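call fold(seq) -> tokens
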Amino acid sequence: MANIKYADPSYTDIPPTDDDKVMFRTAAGGDARGSIVQPKGYIDGLKMVYVSGTQVQLTPGAAYVPGPKRIAELASAVTLTPSLAANTWYHSYLTVSGSTVGVEAVTTAPASPYSGTARAKTGDTSRRYIGSFRTDAAGAIYNFRQSGTDIYYLANIFPAPFQVLANGSASTATSVSCASVVPETARIAVLIATNSDPSVRADLWNSEGVMSMLFINGTNSNQARMALNASQALIYAFASTPSGVLNIRVSGYQYER
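ret:
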């Protein structure tokens, strides 16, 4: 079995590239070269940064791109000014065209994961999925902040579309969609819920149909993360007919890439 041979000073240093090979020591004691193993789900950096209602920046970083089968590096930050439509999801990708590495933000959604949680653009494996952002009714990008794979909205979350349930009073299991502010690559939402009924309990169920959150006292709002189903939805119901109502807002989400 071959072993990597480290730092032999008799070999000339060469400038690194995305397609580096390394020196191995063979079982017979000789030297040989081999390609670096490139994990198909690798991604580092490439964070989305809100710039303005018309621009998003992608920070430097690198990721494996399945089409060219290599790790591609974005050496410096790139600010995108995409053509924007109202109430639309945009998906950012690391792009590889020959030796050119870039980024784009388009409406074409990512495909199903090709390895772990890693995704390519639907119909184009030369594009590796980075993340998604949403526009408002005027076609402006909602302000957000990314930390790891968490997205936190820095917009007014009181009205729609962030208020995913307004004045809910159902006492039977009722679905609530969060898809207007949670992309298809996310299955965790950060919720703020308020039950105005002082005595009747409001229950929320997660993607597995398990009761996850209880809201009894109407004097305070509660914030928690909740697992959504594949359609970015959850279920709620009051324990009995209420005199008050339940309101649910989404303040952020955790997504996979």
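The mean pLDDT is 89.
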